[in-house]
Specification:
CATH topology of the largest domain: Rossmann fold
Structural class: alpha/beta
Oligomer: single chain
Number of strands: 16
Order of helices and strands: EHEHEHEEEHEEHEHEEHEHEHEHEHEHH
Number of domains: 2
Amino acid sequence: MNEKMTQNVFAQLSGQDDNLGDSALRIAYLDALRGPGRHVHVYLMTPTTDYTSGFAKAPDVTFYEQRTPWIRAQNESTRPVHAINAGEINPGAGVFPGPRRAAECARVVAAGGAVIVAGIGLRSVESAAHVTFDPAFRNASVVSWRDQGSRDAAGFGDFAPDWAYSEGPPTSAWADAGERSLLAVTLRFDRPWPGEEWIAATRAFAAKTSTRIVTVAQVARDAPRAVHLAEALGGEYLPAPSMRHDDLDAHVRSVYSRSLAVVSDRAHGLIMGATEGAYPIGSGSDPQKISRLLAAVGLGGLIGRYDELPEFADRFETHLPTLAPAIDAARADVADLTARIRAAMDAVA
């Protein structure tokens, strides 16, 4: 009896070394690529211990620190699967991906394999007007953007929620709203300070909901801002035991699981908060990206500029019951995307 050969899947899962959201979404993507009869070859570029700590070692996964041996293994495989990195892309004018990566994808297709593009999003939807997407990318076996705005701007593929929505406990395991005593706040270090009116509105929201303000930093560079925010808000900065992504993930999820809401301009601060039962309130100087990523799951109602926060606080109670159904639906959509990816891989196995 003939036995099925092991299918080799090649995924570049590199991300920012100090950004927890970057590993969170890619760990979920990796899970979708795994399965019986498959071995996933993961290229992490030049990783740090902090970033790689989020990826658990497993017998069906091989990690590479150098690109050359990763590509060599792909070229030597029969009908390989090439999974384009998930997350944000910011293509310049011209052809995307560039000639080297487009040629790698074309070789996979020519060898009878498959290309998977799943969970990507444009930093700016306006950029798509100046981009020509290479046929090897455009005609991949699966093309799924992480928000409708990116899909509409690109003009092809479909969309499903960001991979990170699939993580976290079942909604049935969440603490009830009445048991959540914290209001979590986390802001980007590279955006304007929100100002005194925003500070007053946040404090008023905490008083109205009988919650205690805490700040966290799930991106290392945000830590000084988190300390400053805690001082300005009369709250407490809760530092992680380390900035290793495994430690950091456990820390922020512990905070969010006890929080009624999370106020942030960090997309994955809002997403990870939502998956732990903390209602996402997006508040920033340029909220277009976070608006797209939360609208993808029907949670865009409380996303806007700094000066809109008082209005969001007034409408908060009416939105709170919508969180669990939205997360359940998002997870079902991600599960459907996973099933389509695995079917596409099975088709070339």
